Every structure is written in C-alpha cells, then in structure tokens.
Amino acid sequence: MADTSMVKLASGDLVREFAIEHAEGLLNMNLRGGTGWHLADEGYELVDGRLTKKAAKKDNKKDKE
User: Fold this and answer.
1) In tens digits, what is the pLDDT along the chain, a chain of 65 residues?
2) What is the pLDDT of residue 65?
3) Which of 6, 26, 27, 49 is the 20 to 30 A CA-CA neighbour of 14?
4) Which H, E and C letters describe 17-52, residue by residue?
5) How far, in Å, are 5, 7, 48, 61, 65 from residue 2 at the CA level?
6) H or E element: which one contains 8?
7) Side-chain half-sphere of 11: how many Cα atoms within 13 Å?
8) Which residues of 25-57 are buried (b: 16+ CB within 10 A; e: fewer)?
9) What pTM, to 2 d.p., does this model score?
10) What phi and psi values does residue 29 have, to the nearest 5 degrees?
11) Which of 58, 18, 56 is nearest to 26 (CA)?
12) Backbone angles phi, psi at 16, to 5 degrees
C-alpha cells in the first residue's frame, strides 16, 4: 500500500492534516465560495488547483577559507 501524503491546512486557530487529495478539494472549494481552510504547510504550494511539493532551494553560498 502506498503512503498517503499529508498536508497541513488551517482555519482560524485550528490546524489539521489532511490527505493531499482531500486538502486539494478543500482549497479548490475556497475558489468557489469558501470553506475557511487555507494552506498552512510551507512544503507545499497550490498551482493550478493541484498541491505540489515546493522545490528545494539550492544553497549558492561558497565556502570561504
């Protein structure tokens, strides 16, 4: 069985984790009238109605010796 990705959503002071498919549904409903939930997971972003993991930022700092 595949692991289900979980995403944090917030509504007011309440923060809950939802399966990614459920979270997408709640966030997309916001566009059509609102559920009160918004994305609270810094590792994900909503792009064209789909939740995707944010790309890891590369550290461009060079070691100084």
Assistant:
1) 568 899 999 999 999 999 999 999 999 887 667 778 999 999 999 999 899 999 877 766 655 44
2) 47
3) 49
4) EEEHHHHHHHHHHHCCCCCCCEECCCCEEEECCEEE
5) 9, 16, 25, 37, 46
6) strand 6-11
7) 11
8) ebbeeeeeeeeebebbbeebebeeeebeeeeee
9) 0.74
10) -65, -30
11) 18
12) -135, 155
The tokens 């060079």 sit on which residue? 62
Every domain of the chain and the residues it spans: 6-43
pLDDT of 3 reads 81
Q: Is 1 helix (H, G, I), strand (E, B) or coil?
A: coil
The tokens describing 19, both together, are 């399966």
Distance CA 57, CA 40 (A): 19
